[in-house]
From TrEMBL:
<dbReference type="InterPro" id="IPR005886">
    <property type="entry name" value="UDP_G4E"/>
</dbReference>
<dbReference type="Pfam" id="PF16363">
    <property type="entry name" value="GDP_Man_Dehyd"/>
</dbReference>
<dbReference type="InterPro" id="IPR036291">
    <property type="entry name" value="NAD(P)-bd_dom_sf"/>
</dbReference>
<dbReference type="GO" id="GO:0003978">
    <property type="term" value="F:UDP-glucose 4-epimerase activity"/>
</dbReference>
<comment type="pathway">
    <text>Carbohydrate metabolism; galactose metabolism.</text>
</comment>
<comment type="similarity">
    <text>Belongs to the NAD(P)-dependent epimerase/dehydratase family.</text>
</comment>
<keyword id="KW-0119">Carbohydrate metabolism</keyword>
<dbReference type="InterPro" id="IPR016040">
    <property type="entry name" value="NAD(P)-bd_dom"/>
</dbReference>
<dbReference type="GO" id="GO:0005829">
    <property type="term" value="C:cytosol"/>
</dbReference>
<dbReference type="GO" id="GO:0006012">
    <property type="term" value="P:galactose metabolic process"/>
</dbReference>
<keyword id="KW-0520">NAD</keyword>
<feature type="domain" description="NAD(P)-binding">
    <location>
        <begin position="5"/>
        <end position="324"/>
    </location>
</feature>
<protein>
    <recommendedName>
        <fullName>UDP-glucose 4-epimerase</fullName>
        <ecNumber>5.1.3.2</ecNumber>
    </recommendedName>
</protein>
<keyword id="KW-0413">Isomerase</keyword>
<comment type="subunit">
    <text>Homodimer.</text>
</comment>
Protein backbone atom coordinates (compact mmCIF):
# COMPACT_ATOMS: atom_id res chain seq x y z
CA UNK A 1 0.00 0.00 0.00
CA UNK A 2 1.41 3.39 -1.03
CA UNK A 3 1.80 6.19 1.49
CA UNK A 4 1.24 9.81 0.56
CA UNK A 5 2.33 12.89 2.47
CA UNK A 6 -0.36 15.53 2.08
CA UNK A 7 0.62 19.09 3.04
CA UNK A 8 -2.16 21.62 3.61
CA UNK A 9 -4.23 18.53 4.46
CA UNK A 10 -6.84 20.24 6.65
CA UNK A 11 -7.50 23.01 4.09
CA UNK A 12 -10.42 23.19 1.69
CA UNK A 13 -9.03 21.13 -1.20
CA UNK A 14 -6.67 19.10 1.01
CA UNK A 15 -9.45 17.77 3.26
CA UNK A 16 -11.58 16.61 0.31
CA UNK A 17 -8.55 15.01 -1.34
CA UNK A 18 -7.65 13.28 1.93
CA UNK A 19 -11.06 11.54 1.98
CA UNK A 20 -10.80 10.45 -1.66
CA UNK A 21 -7.25 9.11 -1.21
CA UNK A 22 -8.34 7.06 1.83
CA UNK A 23 -11.35 5.83 -0.13
CA UNK A 24 -9.00 4.76 -2.95
CA UNK A 25 -6.95 2.71 -0.46
CA UNK A 26 -3.89 4.92 0.09
CA UNK A 27 -2.27 5.52 3.45
CA UNK A 28 -2.17 9.26 4.05
CA UNK A 29 -0.13 11.37 6.42
CA UNK A 30 -1.66 14.83 6.73
CA UNK A 31 0.51 17.80 7.62
CA UNK A 32 -0.75 21.33 8.25
CA UNK A 33 0.11 24.24 10.54
CA UNK A 34 -3.61 25.11 10.80
CA UNK A 35 -2.98 28.78 9.90
CA UNK A 36 -6.00 28.72 7.59
CA UNK A 37 -7.92 25.65 8.69
CA UNK A 38 -9.39 23.93 11.71
CA UNK A 39 -8.44 20.83 13.67
CA UNK A 40 -12.17 19.94 13.54
CA UNK A 41 -11.53 18.76 9.98
CA UNK A 42 -9.85 15.68 11.48
CA UNK A 43 -13.02 14.35 13.13
CA UNK A 44 -14.96 15.09 9.92
CA UNK A 45 -12.46 13.17 7.79
CA UNK A 46 -12.64 10.33 10.33
CA UNK A 47 -16.45 10.34 10.08
CA UNK A 48 -16.38 10.15 6.27
CA UNK A 49 -13.48 7.71 5.89
CA UNK A 50 -14.40 5.49 8.84
CA UNK A 51 -10.84 5.55 10.14
CA UNK A 52 -8.83 7.94 12.20
CA UNK A 53 -6.57 10.08 10.00
CA UNK A 54 -2.83 10.34 10.71
CA UNK A 55 -2.06 14.01 11.30
CA UNK A 56 1.04 16.03 12.11
CA UNK A 57 0.65 19.65 13.11
CA UNK A 58 3.62 21.41 11.56
CA UNK A 59 4.98 23.93 9.12
CA UNK A 60 6.40 23.13 5.67
CA UNK A 61 9.20 25.62 6.37
CA UNK A 62 10.37 23.54 9.36
CA UNK A 63 13.26 21.45 7.92
CA UNK A 64 13.85 19.51 11.14
CA UNK A 65 10.22 18.52 11.47
CA UNK A 66 10.16 17.37 7.83
CA UNK A 67 13.35 15.34 8.30
CA UNK A 68 11.69 13.62 11.28
CA UNK A 69 8.53 12.91 9.26
CA UNK A 70 10.53 11.32 6.41
CA UNK A 71 12.67 9.37 8.88
CA UNK A 72 9.69 7.87 10.66
CA UNK A 73 7.45 7.06 7.65
CA UNK A 74 8.13 5.38 4.32
CA UNK A 75 6.60 7.93 1.95
CA UNK A 76 6.01 7.17 -1.73
CA UNK A 77 4.71 10.53 -2.98
CA UNK A 78 3.86 14.05 -1.91
CA UNK A 79 0.82 16.15 -2.70
CA UNK A 80 1.66 19.72 -1.78
CA UNK A 81 -1.35 21.95 -1.04
CA UNK A 82 0.10 24.05 1.78
CA UNK A 83 0.22 27.68 0.65
CA UNK A 84 -1.29 31.09 1.25
CA UNK A 85 -3.85 31.85 -1.45
CA UNK A 86 -5.55 35.25 -1.11
CA UNK A 87 -4.66 37.46 -4.07
CA UNK A 88 -5.39 40.80 -2.32
CA UNK A 89 -3.50 39.83 0.83
CA UNK A 90 -0.51 38.80 -1.29
CA UNK A 91 -0.24 42.38 -2.57
CA UNK A 92 -0.19 43.70 1.01
CA UNK A 93 2.06 40.96 2.46
CA UNK A 94 4.38 39.76 -0.33
CA UNK A 95 7.12 38.51 2.02
CA UNK A 96 4.72 36.18 3.84
CA UNK A 97 3.55 34.82 0.48
CA UNK A 98 7.05 34.24 -0.91
CA UNK A 99 8.12 32.72 2.40
CA UNK A 100 5.30 30.19 2.73
CA UNK A 101 4.72 29.45 -0.95
CA UNK A 102 8.29 29.50 -2.28
CA UNK A 103 10.57 28.90 0.74
CA UNK A 104 8.05 26.32 1.99
CA UNK A 105 8.22 24.50 -1.35
CA UNK A 106 12.04 24.52 -1.45
CA UNK A 107 12.30 23.29 2.15
CA UNK A 108 9.85 20.47 1.41
CA UNK A 109 11.71 19.49 -1.78
CA UNK A 110 15.04 19.39 0.06
CA UNK A 111 13.57 17.12 2.74
CA UNK A 112 11.99 14.85 0.10
CA UNK A 113 15.22 14.64 -1.91
CA UNK A 114 17.23 13.82 1.23
CA UNK A 115 14.79 10.97 1.88
CA UNK A 116 14.90 9.77 -1.75
CA UNK A 117 11.24 10.60 -2.47
CA UNK A 118 10.78 12.10 -5.94
CA UNK A 119 7.09 11.75 -6.83
CA UNK A 120 5.46 15.12 -6.40
CA UNK A 121 2.05 16.65 -7.15
CA UNK A 122 1.94 20.43 -7.12
CA UNK A 123 -1.13 22.69 -6.63
CA UNK A 124 -0.83 25.23 -9.39
CA UNK A 125 -3.54 27.56 -10.61
CA UNK A 126 -5.20 28.95 -13.70
CA UNK A 127 -3.86 32.26 -12.41
CA UNK A 128 -0.58 31.37 -14.20
CA UNK A 129 -2.30 32.04 -17.54
CA UNK A 130 -2.68 35.74 -16.62
CA UNK A 131 -5.15 37.37 -19.02
CA UNK A 132 -5.36 34.71 -21.75
CA UNK A 133 -5.53 35.78 -25.40
CA UNK A 134 -8.37 33.31 -26.01
CA UNK A 135 -10.52 30.64 -24.35
CA UNK A 136 -10.62 27.69 -23.78
CA UNK A 137 -7.15 27.77 -22.24
CA UNK A 138 -4.67 25.06 -23.22
CA UNK A 139 -1.69 24.01 -21.10
CA UNK A 140 0.75 25.30 -23.74
CA UNK A 141 -0.58 28.88 -23.55
CA UNK A 142 1.96 31.49 -22.35
CA UNK A 143 2.17 32.04 -18.60
CA UNK A 144 2.32 35.32 -16.69
CA UNK A 145 1.22 36.81 -13.39
CA UNK A 146 -0.12 40.14 -12.21
CA UNK A 147 0.14 39.78 -8.43
CA UNK A 148 2.51 38.26 -5.85
CA UNK A 149 0.30 35.20 -5.28
CA UNK A 150 0.37 34.41 -8.99
CA UNK A 151 4.12 34.96 -9.09
CA UNK A 152 4.62 32.45 -6.25
CA UNK A 153 2.83 29.83 -8.38
CA UNK A 154 4.87 30.72 -11.48
CA UNK A 155 8.12 30.64 -9.50
CA UNK A 156 7.14 27.34 -7.92
CA UNK A 157 6.51 25.79 -11.34
CA UNK A 158 9.89 27.19 -12.51
CA UNK A 159 11.72 25.74 -9.50
CA UNK A 160 10.13 22.34 -10.05
CA UNK A 161 11.01 22.34 -13.76
CA UNK A 162 14.64 23.23 -12.95
CA UNK A 163 14.70 20.39 -10.46
CA UNK A 164 13.40 17.92 -13.05
CA UNK A 165 16.04 19.05 -15.55
CA UNK A 166 18.79 18.62 -12.98
CA UNK A 167 17.57 15.20 -11.82
CA UNK A 168 15.24 13.28 -14.16
CA UNK A 169 14.38 10.91 -11.30
CA UNK A 170 11.88 13.57 -10.19
CA UNK A 171 8.41 12.97 -11.59
CA UNK A 172 6.12 15.92 -11.07
CA UNK A 173 2.44 16.52 -11.76
CA UNK A 174 1.63 20.20 -12.21
CA UNK A 175 -2.11 20.57 -11.67
CA UNK A 176 -3.55 23.91 -12.68
CA UNK A 177 -6.92 24.32 -10.94
CA UNK A 178 -9.64 26.57 -12.26
CA UNK A 179 -12.23 27.74 -9.67
CA UNK A 180 -12.85 25.07 -7.00
CA UNK A 181 -16.28 25.36 -5.36
CA UNK A 182 -18.91 23.25 -3.62
CA UNK A 183 -18.49 20.91 -0.70
CA UNK A 184 -18.52 17.26 0.34
CA UNK A 185 -21.94 15.69 -0.28
CA UNK A 186 -22.12 14.68 3.41
CA UNK A 187 -22.20 18.34 4.46
CA UNK A 188 -19.25 17.62 6.79
CA UNK A 189 -16.50 19.32 4.78
CA UNK A 190 -16.48 22.59 2.89
CA UNK A 191 -14.82 25.94 2.52
CA UNK A 192 -14.65 27.98 5.71
CA UNK A 193 -13.09 31.34 4.87
CA UNK A 194 -12.12 33.60 7.75
CA UNK A 195 -13.85 37.01 7.71
CA UNK A 196 -15.76 38.33 4.70
CA UNK A 197 -15.21 35.98 1.74
CA UNK A 198 -13.30 37.27 -1.31
CA UNK A 199 -14.54 34.57 -3.65
CA UNK A 200 -17.90 34.39 -5.35
CA UNK A 201 -19.30 31.08 -4.08
CA UNK A 202 -18.70 31.57 -0.35
CA UNK A 203 -19.97 35.13 -0.66
CA UNK A 204 -23.19 34.02 -2.37
CA UNK A 205 -23.63 31.25 0.20
CA UNK A 206 -23.42 33.81 2.99
CA UNK A 207 -26.01 36.03 1.29
CA UNK A 208 -28.33 33.04 0.87
CA UNK A 209 -28.05 32.06 4.55
CA UNK A 210 -28.55 35.66 5.69
CA UNK A 211 -25.07 36.43 7.08
CA UNK A 212 -24.47 39.05 4.36
CA UNK A 213 -26.99 41.43 2.86
CA UNK A 214 -26.24 41.49 -0.86
CA UNK A 215 -23.66 40.46 -3.41
CA UNK A 216 -21.59 43.07 -5.23
CA UNK A 217 -21.28 41.88 -8.82
CA UNK A 218 -17.91 43.21 -9.96
CA UNK A 219 -18.52 44.58 -13.43
CA UNK A 220 -21.48 44.32 -15.79
CA UNK A 221 -19.66 45.54 -18.89
CA UNK A 222 -17.33 42.69 -19.82
CA UNK A 223 -17.47 41.30 -23.34
CA UNK A 224 -19.34 38.20 -22.15
CA UNK A 225 -22.89 36.96 -22.83
CA UNK A 226 -24.44 38.99 -19.95
CA UNK A 227 -21.58 41.42 -19.22
CA UNK A 228 -20.42 39.68 -16.01
CA UNK A 229 -17.21 37.66 -15.56
CA UNK A 230 -17.14 34.05 -16.74
CA UNK A 231 -15.24 31.32 -14.86
CA UNK A 232 -14.76 27.55 -14.95
CA UNK A 233 -16.16 26.43 -11.58
CA UNK A 234 -15.15 22.89 -10.66
CA UNK A 235 -16.69 20.81 -7.85
CA UNK A 236 -14.08 20.27 -5.15
CA UNK A 237 -14.80 16.52 -5.07
CA UNK A 238 -14.10 16.26 -8.82
CA UNK A 239 -10.89 18.17 -8.18
CA UNK A 240 -9.98 15.79 -5.34
CA UNK A 241 -10.61 12.81 -7.64
CA UNK A 242 -8.31 14.48 -10.20
CA UNK A 243 -5.53 14.26 -7.59
CA UNK A 244 -6.23 10.58 -7.00
CA UNK A 245 -5.87 9.98 -10.75
CA UNK A 246 -2.78 12.19 -10.99
CA UNK A 247 -0.91 10.38 -8.22
CA UNK A 248 -1.91 6.99 -9.64
CA UNK A 249 -0.50 8.16 -12.99
CA UNK A 250 2.86 8.85 -11.33
CA UNK A 251 2.77 5.44 -9.63
CA UNK A 252 2.11 3.86 -13.04
CA UNK A 253 5.52 5.26 -14.04
CA UNK A 254 4.45 8.25 -16.13
CA UNK A 255 6.86 11.12 -16.81
CA UNK A 256 6.11 14.61 -15.48
CA UNK A 257 2.95 16.28 -16.77
CA UNK A 258 1.10 19.62 -16.62
CA UNK A 259 -2.70 19.54 -16.78
CA UNK A 260 -5.67 21.82 -16.34
CA UNK A 261 -8.26 20.64 -13.83
CA UNK A 262 -11.52 22.32 -14.78
CA UNK A 263 -14.81 21.36 -16.38
CA UNK A 264 -14.30 23.11 -19.71
CA UNK A 265 -17.51 25.11 -19.23
CA UNK A 266 -17.68 28.76 -18.17
CA UNK A 267 -20.54 30.33 -16.19
CA UNK A 268 -21.16 34.04 -15.63
CA UNK A 269 -21.62 35.60 -12.20
CA UNK A 270 -25.34 36.05 -12.88
CA UNK A 271 -25.70 32.42 -13.98
CA UNK A 272 -24.13 31.36 -10.67
CA UNK A 273 -26.46 33.66 -8.75
CA UNK A 274 -29.51 32.15 -10.48
CA UNK A 275 -28.32 28.56 -9.97
CA UNK A 276 -27.63 29.23 -6.29
CA UNK A 277 -31.02 30.86 -5.75
CA UNK A 278 -32.62 27.79 -7.33
CA UNK A 279 -30.59 25.31 -5.24
CA UNK A 280 -31.15 27.13 -1.96
CA UNK A 281 -34.70 28.32 -2.52
CA UNK A 282 -33.52 31.72 -1.25
CA UNK A 283 -33.39 34.99 -3.18
CA UNK A 284 -29.84 36.29 -3.75
CA UNK A 285 -29.93 40.07 -3.61
CA UNK A 286 -27.22 41.70 -5.72
CA UNK A 287 -26.11 44.98 -7.25
CA UNK A 288 -23.75 45.49 -10.17
CA UNK A 289 -20.77 47.64 -9.13
CA UNK A 290 -17.42 48.61 -10.71
CA UNK A 291 -15.01 45.95 -11.96
CA UNK A 292 -12.59 44.50 -9.38
CA UNK A 293 -9.00 45.50 -10.26
CA UNK A 294 -7.02 42.61 -11.71
CA UNK A 295 -10.09 40.59 -12.81
CA UNK A 296 -10.31 39.20 -16.33
CA UNK A 297 -13.43 38.76 -18.47
CA UNK A 298 -13.34 35.06 -19.18
CA UNK A 299 -11.41 32.02 -18.03
CA UNK A 300 -12.19 28.38 -18.76
CA UNK A 301 -10.14 25.30 -19.42
CA UNK A 302 -9.46 23.10 -22.38
CA UNK A 303 -9.81 19.77 -20.58
CA UNK A 304 -8.73 17.46 -23.41
CA UNK A 305 -5.29 16.74 -21.97
CA UNK A 306 -6.59 15.78 -18.51
CA UNK A 307 -9.10 13.45 -20.18
CA UNK A 308 -6.53 11.80 -22.45
CA UNK A 309 -3.61 11.62 -20.06
CA UNK A 310 -5.31 10.98 -16.73
CA UNK A 311 -8.54 9.43 -17.97
CA UNK A 312 -10.29 11.88 -15.69
CA UNK A 313 -13.10 14.33 -16.23
CA UNK A 314 -15.19 16.48 -13.90
CA UNK A 315 -18.75 15.24 -13.95
CA UNK A 316 -20.52 17.30 -11.30
CA UNK A 317 -22.41 20.24 -12.82
CA UNK A 318 -23.27 23.72 -11.56
CA UNK A 319 -26.55 22.65 -9.90
CA UNK A 320 -24.70 20.00 -7.84
CA UNK A 321 -21.97 22.49 -6.91
CA UNK A 322 -24.67 24.87 -5.59
CA UNK A 323 -26.64 22.12 -3.81
CA UNK A 324 -23.56 20.79 -2.01
CA UNK A 325 -22.35 24.28 -1.11
CA UNK A 326 -25.81 25.08 0.29
CA UNK A 327 -25.95 21.85 2.33
CA UNK A 328 -22.55 22.67 3.83
CA UNK A 329 -23.62 26.27 4.50
CA UNK A 330 -26.86 25.32 6.26
CA UNK A 331 -25.28 22.52 8.31
CA UNK A 332 -22.34 24.78 9.28
CA UNK A 333 -23.55 28.41 9.14
CA UNK A 334 -20.24 29.64 10.59
CA UNK A 335 -18.02 27.07 8.91
CA UNK A 336 -15.80 25.25 11.41
CA UNK A 337 -15.98 28.21 13.83
CA UNK A 338 -19.13 27.26 15.75
P1 LIG B 1 -6.64 26.48 2.09
O1 LIG B 1 -6.12 27.75 2.66
O2 LIG B 1 -7.99 26.02 2.50
O3 LIG B 1 -5.61 25.29 2.37
C1 LIG B 1 -4.22 25.49 2.48
C2 LIG B 1 -3.77 24.84 3.78
O4 LIG B 1 -2.37 25.03 3.93
C3 LIG B 1 -4.46 25.43 5.02
O5 LIG B 1 -5.03 24.39 5.77
C4 LIG B 1 -3.32 26.10 5.78
O6 LIG B 1 -3.48 26.03 7.18
C5 LIG B 1 -2.10 25.30 5.28
N1 LIG B 1 -0.84 26.03 5.36
C6 LIG B 1 -0.59 27.30 4.96
N2 LIG B 1 0.69 27.61 5.21
C7 LIG B 1 1.27 26.52 5.75
C8 LIG B 1 2.58 26.23 6.21
N3 LIG B 1 3.54 27.15 6.18
N4 LIG B 1 2.84 24.99 6.68
C9 LIG B 1 1.84 24.06 6.74
N5 LIG B 1 0.58 24.28 6.34
C10 LIG B 1 0.30 25.51 5.84
O7 LIG B 1 -6.55 26.60 0.49
P2 LIG B 1 -7.10 25.63 -0.64
O8 LIG B 1 -8.15 26.35 -1.37
O9 LIG B 1 -7.36 24.28 -0.10
O10 LIG B 1 -5.83 25.59 -1.59
C11 LIG B 1 -4.91 24.51 -1.62
C12 LIG B 1 -3.86 24.76 -2.67
O11 LIG B 1 -4.48 24.93 -3.94
C13 LIG B 1 -3.02 26.03 -2.46
O12 LIG B 1 -1.70 25.76 -2.86
C14 LIG B 1 -3.66 27.03 -3.40
O13 LIG B 1 -2.75 28.03 -3.79
C15 LIG B 1 -4.05 26.13 -4.55
N6 LIG B 1 -5.14 26.67 -5.37
C16 LIG B 1 -6.33 27.01 -4.78
C17 LIG B 1 -7.36 27.52 -5.55
C18 LIG B 1 -8.65 27.97 -4.93
O14 LIG B 1 -9.35 28.78 -5.52
N7 LIG B 1 -9.04 27.48 -3.75
C19 LIG B 1 -7.18 27.66 -6.93
C20 LIG B 1 -5.96 27.29 -7.50
C21 LIG B 1 -4.94 26.79 -6.71
C1 LIG C 1 -15.19 34.76 -9.66
C2 LIG C 1 -16.03 35.76 -10.43
C3 LIG C 1 -15.46 38.03 -9.96
C4 LIG C 1 -16.72 37.97 -5.75
C5 LIG C 1 -9.61 33.51 -7.64
C6 LIG C 1 -8.12 33.76 -7.74
C7 LIG C 1 -7.46 32.67 -8.55
C8 LIG C 1 -7.81 31.28 -8.01
C9 LIG C 1 -9.29 31.12 -7.79
C10 LIG C 1 -6.11 30.45 -6.53
C11 LIG C 1 -15.23 36.94 -10.99
C12 LIG C 1 -16.88 37.75 -9.49
C13 LIG C 1 -16.44 37.62 -7.06
C14 LIG C 1 -17.75 38.91 -5.49
C15 LIG C 1 -18.16 39.06 -7.86
N1 LIG C 1 -7.21 31.03 -6.73
N2 LIG C 1 -17.15 38.16 -8.10
N3 LIG C 1 -18.44 39.42 -6.56
O1 LIG C 1 -11.07 35.83 -9.14
O2 LIG C 1 -11.80 33.97 -10.71
O3 LIG C 1 -10.16 33.49 -8.95
O4 LIG C 1 -9.82 32.24 -7.04
O5 LIG C 1 -5.25 30.12 -7.30
O6 LIG C 1 -6.09 32.90 -8.50
O7 LIG C 1 -7.90 35.01 -8.36
O8 LIG C 1 -12.50 33.88 -8.31
O9 LIG C 1 -14.50 33.63 -6.91
O10 LIG C 1 -13.05 35.68 -6.61
O11 LIG C 1 -14.42 35.45 -8.67
O12 LIG C 1 -18.81 39.57 -8.77
O13 LIG C 1 -18.02 39.30 -4.32
O14 LIG C 1 -16.99 36.34 -9.53
O15 LIG C 1 -15.38 39.34 -10.48
O16 LIG C 1 -15.81 37.29 -12.22
P1 LIG C 1 -11.39 34.41 -9.37
P2 LIG C 1 -13.61 34.65 -7.52
Amino acid sequence: MKTILLTGATGYIGSHTWCELLEAGYQVIGLDNLCNSSEKVLERVAGIAGKHPVFIKGDVRDAQLLADVFASHRIDALIHFAALKAVGESVAKPLEYYDVNVTGLVTLLQAARNAGVRNFIFSSSATVYGDPASVPIREDFPVSATNPYGRTKLMSERILRDLESADPEWRIGYLRYFNPVGAHASGLLGESPKGIPNNLFPYVANVAVGNLEKLNVYGGDYATRDGTGVRDYIHVVDLALGHVRAVAHLFEGAPSFTVNLGTGTGYSVLEVVRAYAEASGRPIDYQVVARRPGDIAECYADVGLAENLLNWRADRGLAEMCRDSWRWQTMNPHGFDD
